[in-house]
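Thread: "does anyone have the structure for this chain?"

Original post by V.I.:
We have the sequence but no experimental structure in hand. Need at least a predicted one for the grant figures.
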Amino acid sequence: MSLFDLLSKEGRAKSAVEKNAKRVMNKHLQSPDRFSAMEKLKEIGTDEALYCLAKRFSYVYDKTIEDEQEKEWVRNAMVALGERAVEPLLRYALNASTLSQPLHVLEKITSPERLLAIVDELLAREEPGYTRHPAKKVQILTWLAEWQGGGPVEASKRVLPYLADFDEQVRFVAVDSLAHHKAQAVAREPLLAALIRPEEESRRIKVRIAEVLAENGWPISPHKEAIEMLLASELPEFSLKQDKLVRKKES
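Reply from O.Q.:
Generated one for you, tokens below.
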């Protein structure tokens, strides 16, 4: 094949990707037309084509059933492609406003080690602290709560910094994520510190932390005195039994 023929072929492929990518992202098309465009992008199979295919996750079509059918098709297509889809999905995730879909696909097609590296890359862009749009943090922490592939310690280590996040919902989801993994060796002390943290004003977060400690029977030393003061003032539904928190029985 001559250089001219090669360039011509690449040009046609690029044009096909651009054409079908526009159709995939066009909410005004009929669903069968978008399906046809999605199938074409999968068939082309370049990184750019698969990235454009992943972008179908980025919007909600007004017909709920068809919207889910299209997204399910994309999920299945990406899973079928296996490792071939990892880099396009990562590129999409790094620029996406919603992360649940790509993370759930990635967990099926790549190793836990590679997936943890991807999560670290995503979290590096969503560090603890103030942000106008904390939804990505919530999505990643929620996914970490459900993911079992990397082990409870590795998942918990990535959640811990968000116990002191600026956003109250992010902090609550972080506690909830740690509750799922029950990794006492790494989570107990940070949860205790978060419970008695002077800056924490959210009672629902304090209640959730107390629940996690009580449900798991984790000792509270060396913070007994501070926690006793907290029980008297803000958490009357809990008490201490030896060195552990317990929820009082309702009368």
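V.I.: this helps a lot. The chain has a mean pLDDT of 93.
O.Q.: and The chain has two domains: 8-110, 131-251.
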